[in-house]
Amino acid sequence: FEVELVVDGQAVYPALEDFDPDVVIVDVFLPSRSGYEICHWIKTNPRLEATRVVLTAGMLEPLDENAAHSAGADAILRKPFEASEVVKTIRPLA
After folding, report:
1. Is residue 67 classed exposed, middle or buried when 0-12, 13-18 and 19+ CB atoms within 10 A define those classes?
2. Helix residue ranges per DSSP H, the chain
3. I want to staple 28 with a disulfide (CB 3.0 to 4.6 A). Which of 57, 72, 88, 90 is the partner?
4. Angle value at C-alpha 71, between 59 and 88, nearest 5 degrees
5. How far apart are CA 81 and CA 24, in angstroms?
């Protein structure tokens, strides 16, 4: 897998102008933008609409599964997770 790291919700948009990912893994709780917002933006962007989105959140953080579904998320991962769990989740999406 080729990985592009973005640590701020606002930086996602310019990064995706130069990077055409198969799968985006995004935390629900990011500075500047929520993972739900980013997921919805990806799914409604004609250039990126086929991109799969996996939302993540910590075990103690609230994750609204209805909001994730409404945003178009393809999968949800709860942290902490093993690397094998990440691969198992994204492999069928990539």
Report:
1. middle
2. 12-18, 35-44, 65-71, 83-90
3. 57
4. 55
5. 16
